[in-house]
Amino acid sequence: MKQKFTAKKDKFWIYIFISLLFPIYIYSLDEIDVDQMYYLIPAFLPFIIFIWAYFSTVYYLDSQYFYYKSAFLKGRIEIEKIKEIEQNKTLWSGVKPALAAKGLIIKYGYDEIYVAPLSNEQLTQALLKINSNIIVK
Questions:
Q1: Do the Cβ atoms of 117 and 6 come closer than 8 Å?
Q2: CA–CA dist 85, 89 (Å, integer)
Q3: Which of 10, 38, 60, 107 has the fewest C-beta atoms lying within 10 Å of its C-beta?
Q4: For residue 78, which phi and psi values (nearest 5 degrees)?
Q5: What is the DSSP secondary structure assignment for residue 7, as one 8-state letter?
Q6: What does the pLDDT look like over 96-136, one tens digit per residue?
Q7: Total-model pTM
Q8: For residue range 1-38, what is the model confidence (pLDDT) as tens digits?
Q9: What is the dihedral of CA 17, 96, 70, 4, to 10 degrees?
């Protein structure tokens, strides 16, 4: 059975949505012919991707793997390969299926991933139950 961890969502994302909607709104004030509707598609694509990431970001945990999913980013990490977890940190580059700052940096093998669950402590404790060799910083 998979244990679900919802993602923490910063208010910053709301400002991104509003800023993406503003150019669409301005463009819509002008009269648009039906033949010219395809010009709006590029304006909607970033908005659709942000909405997709906002509503699809989630983390799962079972007895063997940690799963992450955020829009087109998804994958799994074998829990036994996790070496270290840094709590309340933010990773500014790399794989980031997260919507907030001050999450967890999970180091496994030679890779690392940044996630931001609602409760860093709950996810860390759940991972430690499965693999007690994880170093928590």
A1: yes
A2: 10
A3: 38
A4: -70, 125
A5: B
A6: 888 888 899 999 988 999 999 998 999 999 999 998 888 89
A7: 0.79
A8: 788 888 888 777 777 777 767 766 666 666 666 666 66
A9: -120
DSSP codes of every residue in 91-134: --SSB---BSSSEEEEEETTEEEEE-BS-HHHHHHHHHHH-TT-
Cross-strand partners of 4:
60
| Complete edge-to-edge strand list for the sheet that includes strand 73-78 | 3-6, 58-61, 65-70, 73-78
> The tokens of 46 are what?
């970033």
Report the residue count for the chain: 137
SS3 helix, strand, coil % of the chain, rounded to 5? 40, 35, 25
Backbone angles phi, psi at 83, to 5 degrees: -100, -40
